Amino acid sequence: MSQSQQKDGNKGAGKGEAFVTAITPQSEDFSRWYLDVVRRAELADYTMVKGCMVIRPYGYAIWERIQHLLDARLKATGHVNAYFPLFIPESLLMKEADHVAGFAPEVAWVTHGGSEKLEERLAIRPTSEVIIGTLYAKWLQSWRDLPILINQWANVVRWEKVTRPFLRTTEFLWQEGHTAHETEAEAEEETLKILQVYKEFVETELAMPVIEGRKSDSEKFAGASKTYSIEALMGDGRALQAGTSHNLGQNFAKAFDIKFQGRDKVEQHAWTTSWGVSTRLIGGLIMVHGDDSGLVLPPNIAPYQVVIVPIPRGNWQETVLPPAQAIRDQLTAQGVRVMLDARDAYTPGWKFAEWELRGVPIRLEIGPKDIEKGQVVLARRDTREKQFVPMADLLPQVSQWLLDIQAGLLEKARQLREERSHYTESYEEFKALMAGARPGLIYAPWCDDAVVEAQVKTETQATIRNYPFTAPSAEGKACFVTGRPALVMACFAKAY
Amino acid sequence: MSQSQQKDGNKGAGKGEAFVTAITPQSEDFSRWYLDVVRRAELADYTMVKGCMVIRPYGYAIWERIQHLLDARLKATGHVNAYFPLFIPESLLMKEADHVAGFAPEVAWVTHGGSEKLEERLAIRPTSEVIIGTLYAKWLQSWRDLPILINQWANVVRWEKVTRPFLRTTEFLWQEGHTAHETEAEAEEETLKILQVYKEFVETELAMPVIEGRKSDSEKFAGASKTYSIEALMGDGRALQAGTSHNLGQNFAKAFDIKFQGRDKVEQHAWTTSWGVSTRLIGGLIMVHGDDSGLVLPPNIAPYQVVIVPIPRGNWQETVLPPAQAIRDQLTAQGVRVMLDARDAYTPGWKFAEWELRGVPIRLEIGPKDIEKGQVVLARRDTREKQFVPMADLLPQVSQWLLDIQAGLLEKARQLREERSHYTESYEEFKALMAGARPGLIYAPWCDDAVVEAQVKTETQATIRNYPFTAPSAEGKACFVTGRPALVMACFAKAY
Which of A168, B30, B165, B411 is the most buried (most CB within 10 A)? Predict the structure, then answer.
């Protein structure tokens, strides 16, 4: 990222109708389309700090919806929030060998405080297992203190070479849960419970269908015993890892001395987990639902579910504006999130295009003629259906459409994913599919060999997304690459 | 801060009744009392990172209440949230001369990313005027884009030598608002509007009475034209700055090129403001209301407003627990935040002490005899009043008490502040008062001379908290130190 972008304050006058046409079509260049949407819809912007973005108010409002809806689910399952330090002393980060190997190359280091050189360098957290583990070791005494179920909403930093807004940035926002348990089985149960929370949340609220499964050993979290993930298919046929849940076994407990006196009075190590989703979800939201006119937001996550555009004829501020305001107030009272765009300096056409670009699920138009006839015009962003709706039917119609759009987006994404899911037992076919324009997901019987996995990645750029829970058994099948007996069914894709 | 503390996992068994007696009485050592409460009530804990604390779940739940209640007020006044980068390139930080002078000594510097040395050092934001100003310069084009009213909830880092949980830590959480306006008058109006939002919020929700006023030039924010603050009096007679609002004039606009085309088509610099409150408010909450038994939380901010303690007689889990659960559900349905403490390993006496320590406003006791009589016992944390309440009156009684406690705490704090507020025209009397055990606030006519201000600070440790809006006029009075004509009435105190 660089500061080479021009001023784009597109609230200013004079940019007029060119606004939307400035988006690259998906079919022409999906990656360019993505960046255009991010910038034009004012979701995020580049900054003068390498790899760091600013999340602009409209993008941040989506993040606030995500926080609100996921936080409630985490609390309902017994988790509480806390806040741990940004800094990790170098010696502490070095304690868990796999973890160090995984994260040290991407750590930002603080070496000076004011004018003083620090005695020990401080890592800016790339993730917080280390710092949190050290505190759990301090707090934990007895089996009665377990489980510890803590989550934090925080920023983390990973020194990335290639960045892209929301998908991969040097600093990003996320939630990271960290739990400690009495037994191995409880830790595994927690890891899977959270995976289900993520799946249900992402599908229900973001209308983004996901495939849940276990990661291969080479793709698991640095320091974990097992990593599970949810994976979504984007509009360009690539996959996005949308959330991960790690069973850390006793690896961190041993490295950081997280011990307790058991029911049997014997001191033992706890079993820990960690799990997270990040602002990356916003990138997924854009790429799953967006089209050539811009964003398409599921109503549950949309900052505004309805935008009201008054049609300015004659003395509209006396005739059209008051009923428009009344409608806004009515809908708001019903819990609908409404934006009334009464700005004077823009034409209705410009506003239509802008709010389409911003993905608002329903547009409500109201002009002098509509008022005469006791009606309004409703337009759906997803299907572009337009309807005249009598005022008396407005509330039920809006409520119904919001439900329909939410369900419709999920169904559409699911269908698209099915169309782009393949099964093969032939590496040749696999290679041909992966070389296509929108490669999609390929299920294949798999020998579970990290060396072969690396070979497939080199030859096709495809990686194992996970071993899906719902995939058919691989029993009796031969690995599609080596012909050796398959141990598991794997889901491959080119991934973000 | 160091890691010298022992394990304090006081959820463990075997610590029994010694729990509360371990708090130092306020009268013996207020500072020690404060630290005891923070640790014993599990609000925060020390970490192995110098000057950095962990905010534990109970402390963080208070912060979440603060966020929730203040965020709603900021949104209601037209502000939106966003998120800006953690890092500020050194060259950028150096652009506003006063700002640099104020903040450079306390900046933490990132010099390496992974194994590479950075070409330019990155400051971890001590505050974000610089980074946000640079982006406003990019976004702002026309007067139509104004005002820009953005807030962010974030962590910031200031390299502090002496730290104390919540009150002064190397890393802390806060909100920082940053706005840009067309005219000087609008910027001043915003600065004062936010000061009023802070005052109303802190008094209504935290029951913490504050004095609003303007800071002296030597105490204003580095780079501001004017700084306003709200100041609260703590239980030990010291003052705490609870929030600040800065009118930045055109200082940052000029340093960072925040310009727009005005209504007159002439390019001009914007007028900007910034303002913030932080986790420091939690320190204030502890010190304003707390007593020798621990925390006393105002109901509006308390994570739990009512704790239910079932009295375990006989087969209580069949007889007492179900009605206790029913009461919890009833209260919860009415929007009351309830904790049912059904833990088996602790006695009621231990639980009473623990929840007193944690400042829960109302305790509800229920045992077999109460159930026979169709009643419960309610106990107020603030006044320690205890009442038998018939089940039929429970809901209204709890609601009434919550209101009474909220109002009572504010009133009590206000009375205490009045008792400890003095007016003097004599520097000798001033010195005597400031040398007392609980010095309080001293109002005095003042010549507004920074040199004399420094002298008073050296001689008495007292600083000017602000020039209160509500103080009587200083007209015709002589400065209490120099005898020169007083220009303003100042409020002095020893401060945190």
Answer: B165
B279 and B166 Cβ atoms separated by less than 8 Å: yes
| Residues in chain B closer than 8 A to A144 (CB atoms) | 11-13, 345
CB contact under 8 A, A106 and B115: no
Contact between chains at B12 and A145 (C-beta distance less than 8 A): yes
* Chain A contact present for B286, CB below 8 A: no
Q: Is the CB of residue B116 less than 8 Å from the CB of residue B132?
A: no
Residue of B nearest to A107 (CA): B114
Q: Which of 3.40.50.800, 3.40.50.300, 3.90.550.10, 3.40.50.11030 is the CATH number of A306-408?
A: 3.40.50.800
DSSP category for residue A23: S
Average pLDDT score over chain A = 94
Give the residue from A49, A122, A358 with the most B CB atoms within 10 Å of its CB, the best one to mutate.
A49
Portion 439-478 of A in contact with B at CB < 8 A: none
DSSP B145: G
The fold of the B306-404 domain, in CATH, is Rossmann fold (3.40.50)
Task: Report which of A94, A97, A143, A139 is spatially closest to residue A120, judged by C-alpha positions.
Answer: A94
> Cβ–Cβ of A108/B107 closer than 8 Å?
no
**Residue among A12, A57, A124 minimizing CB distance to B110:** A124
Tell which CATH classification among 1.20.1250.20, 1.10.10.60, 3.30.930.10, 3.40.50.150 matches the domain A53-288: 3.30.930.10
Highest CATH level, class, for B421-493: alpha beta
The shortest C-alpha distance from B142 to chain A (Å) reads 6
Pair B239, B496: CB distance under 8 Å: yes
Encode pLDDT of A423-458 as tens digits: 999 999 999 999 998 899 999 999 999 999 999 999
B286 contact partners, CB below 8 Å, separation of at least 6 = B34, B37, B38, B43, B166, B295
CATH fold match for the domains B306-404 and B421-493: no
CB contacts < 8 A, A to B, total 192
Please name the CATH architecture into which domain B53-84+128-288 falls.
2-Layer Sandwich (3.30)
ipTM score: 0.94
User: Which of A52, A71, A84 should one mutate to test binding to chain B, selecting the residue with the greatest count of B CBs within 10 A?
Assistant: A84
A9 contact B CB<8A: yes
Report pLDDT digits (tens) over A41-63: 999 999 999 899 999 999 999 99
